[in-house]
Amino acid sequence: MWKRIVTAILMVFMLSSCTLKLGYNSLDFWIDYYLSDYLDSNSAQQSQLEQGLDSALAEHRKQILPQFHRLIFSLQNDLKQPLTAEQIAYYHDAFTKAGQASAVVFVAPIIKVVKTMGPKQVSYSLQAIQEEISERKKDRLSKTAKERLQERYDELEDKAIDWIGRLTQPQKQLIMQLAQLQLQQSTVFQNIAQNNVSQLTKALKQRSTPEFEQIITLQVKNIIGFESSVYQSQLDKYLAQRFEIMQQLNHSLSQQQLQHLQAELTELRKDIAELIQKR
Q1: Comparing 158 with 9, which gets the higher pLDDT?
Q2: d(CA 168, CA 156)
Q3: CB of 43 within 8 A of CB of 77?
Q4: How far apart (Å, rounded) are the C-alpha atoms in residues 112 and 148?
Q5: CA-CA distance, 13 to 17, in Å (whole number)?
Q6: How far is CA 263 from CA 33, 76, 110, 165, 259, in A?
Q7: What global pTM score does this model have?
């Protein structure tokens, strides 16, 4: 449940220029829409949720959007020279923290509603989550390793083309390395997801305790930050390898690709500036 909420929050920043503003200004609606698959809320809870998400969007616009604007501006300046591995790690960490702050703002009103849920409503949510996990596992097992790799490569290639334009063959090879790296860690990712579900199940059964909000907030941060007390060493190794590939990709950019990337970032920054002004 929390992962889909996080996805709804972060996906708007990956959209095209004209779509970003529309997606952001209706973000409270989309979060509510995704939640409808997991929450069997009554009319009072639904009203509370809608009001809370509306307030969260206003808070996010005021407090968090300026952070993204500053980060993009800083990144554009640094991109005038090839990025170092340290810089790539820095921006990964900085954008991750901004994403975590975003999620915390929107998750807060959801937690307040969840705390009012009865046992039957909690059972409904847990069953919906388990059903989705089962469907994803079934879909994953229905594909060969080669098919999963190609699917992941296609997703990464599409994102890369959106940001830097047409790719060279060496750049496509780097994208394939990144796809292979992610597939190699799939077992770790699945174990982390299952651990998150176990923690969520335990937390929902203790939703009346004072620590409930803190537990859920930490869990959401861990999902976004790619953090796990059990698998952190594997995750750190994966990120280091990922940063190395990203550095090679950055150093391979042609002047035309750099101009394309800068133009995309400029449009994104301008759109965020307009959103801050409620336009």
Answers
A1: 158
A2: 14
A3: no
A4: 38
A5: 9
A6: 32, 10, 36, 11, 6
A7: 0.86
**DSSP-based helix, strand, coil % in the chain, nearest 5:** 80, 0, 20
pLDDT of residue 17: 44
Rounded CA gap, 94 and 70, in Å?
11
**Whole-Å CA distances, 209 to 1, 102, 116, 194, 212:** 20, 24, 12, 23, 6
One-letter amino acid of 265 = L
CB 81 within 8 A of CB 141: no
Angle between helices 255-276 and 17-25 (to 10 degrees): 30
> Which tokens hold the place of 45?
């809870």
Instruction: Output the CA angle 87-76-160, nearest 5 degrees.
Output: 80
